Amino acid sequence: MENKEINKKKPTFFWSLFPIITMILLLGVGYAIIGLSAEVLMLVASVIAGIVALGHGYTWEDIIDTIVQKLTKTMPAILVLIVVGFLIGTWMIGGTIPMMIYYGLKVINPNFLILTAFLVTSITSVCTGTSWGSAGTVGVAIMGVAIAMGAPLAIVAGAVVSGAYFGDKLSPLSDTTNLAPIAAGSELYEHIAHMLWTTGPGFIICCIVYTAVGFSQDPGSVSSPESVALVLASIDELFRINIFMIIPVIIVLYGSLRKKPALPIMLFSSGIAILNSVIFQGFTLQQSFDASINGFRLEMFSGVNVASLGSDMATLLQRGGMKSMLGTVLIAFCAYGFAGTLAVTGSLETIMESLTRKVKSRQGIIGSTILATITTVFVTSNGQISLLLPGEMFSKTYIKNGLHPKNLSRTLEDSATVIEPITPWTAAGVYMAGTLGVATIQYLPWAVLNYTGVIFAMIWAITGIGVPKIRKGDKCYAEHVILNEAV
């Protein structure tokens, strides 16, 4: 056993970086350009990372054990992902999502649809602290309205993602908002206030862009009164809409606000939706269970000529079910397989150490943090790891160079929390694509808030505006002095 441990070597910077560069090239060329399967490409990258690990003395048992550890930590998120499919299926057959679509079509002005999508999901995510929940509930309803109106789905989906992650960055209920200051050594509410330097301008830009794009659309192409009236009439004919349809939404929002465990709350909400489907919509329990597993289908209505409803209604209503999330789960497993194979050798730590060794200037430190954090997102496909690992690696660098830790916590969120959902192979990226029905690459340009944070982070780093230094009286001042005396 001792000989096996002695033979294990930590890879050099080149061999640490090699599997990552290979993965980026495979996905960048194979997936984004040629259109090859991302899952297979991730497996190829995992094989290459495994060969590097074996060449440095690590065994197959070491690799598989690390992969299992990664997947074990990820299982709660994967379970939530599967239950979201269950939730959408039950909300559909129970009439909850049709109700939101129905009233959304009645009150939303087509010119303000994109801006409304952004603002509504922003408010929901700030109140609940959950980007996935906001996109999976309010976001799904808004996408239904967009489909019915014939609005550009990629733009609307981008606005939904922007709004969902506005709250994920700023809400004290958000796990990432709490995790970033823990990783960086700052305080929660000073971190939230400091986030406004980058998120505030991004919010304003989003409002301007989404308003301008909304008014640039030809009203005739965005919304046909006849088609909207047909959708309204069809929903009115198919579903019995009443106040009980909103109860499943209230349950999820209440659970999020009270920070209750996500899975029980979502399952309870789904249970109420199933009762609604049986009591008010006239479906059988068998049909409700079928919708929760396989998704809702228009054929479930008895005595209705489905063909007469048109393809728009099928696109609008046929969705959800646990099976609809299996593709998302598969790519998550492949991504974490690569992350586990890379982690066994400590390659990521080697790269981080090389990045921080010679960085001295303010813009160099913040720029290196952004680069390292985005790299971690690309490699691990996990936003939480991408906050914690760079936070640990850079915390002393910031303090030693006199930069307040809240600069680090802000930069971590600007380059991890919001970058994850616009990266196609991450769990957040595939979740948003699967939930909203728009490919990550398609909504990426319109998820404005998700990349303006990095832009403003570098602007403030270069100018020095909004990048406070450590002062006497700060908790980290003593550590700053000690680190500089040790040099």
TrEMBL record:
Protein's cellular compartments: Cell membrane
Pfam families (alphabetical): Na_H_antiporter
Membrane topology: Multi-pass membrane protein
GO molecular function, one term: antiporter activity
Keywords: Antiport, Cell membrane, Membrane, Transmembrane, Transmembrane helix, Transport
TM spans (from-to): 12-34, 40-58, 78-105, 111-133, 140-166, 238-255, 262-283, 325-344, 365-385, 443-467
One GO CC annotation: plasma membrane
Main location: membrane
Domain Na+/H+ antiporter NhaC-like C-terminal: 163-465
Keyword DNA-binding annotated: no
NCBIfam families the UniProt entry points to: antiport_nhaC
Database matches in PANTHER family: MALATE-2H(+)/NA(+)-LACTATE ANTIPORTER (PTHR33451), MALATE-2H(+)_NA(+)-LACTATE ANTIPORTER (PTHR33451:SF3)
Similarity field: Belongs to the NhaC Na(+)/H(+) (TC 2.A.35) antiporter family.
Protein name: Sodium:proton antiporter
Species whose genome carries this gene: Alkalispirochaeta sphaeroplastigenens
